[in-house]
Fold this protein.
Amino acid sequence: MQQHSNDPLHGKTLEMVLNALVTHYGWKELGERIHINCFISDPSIKSSLKFLRKTPWARKKVEDLYISTPTLYTNIN
């Protein structure tokens, strides 16, 4: 019998999560929902990933938004 992780992000990389959010919301709305400079000033996946990997509180906000977005979260399984 296969066990499933209770972690809703199990198997998802930060890059996958960020790409899904950018596709769903776009940079402008993402920057309005999560007020961090890497989403507002000349945003890119590369610079955002670099910041999020070094900043646990910001990464948590991104992961929480992903989980709380029904159209994204329901498609992760």
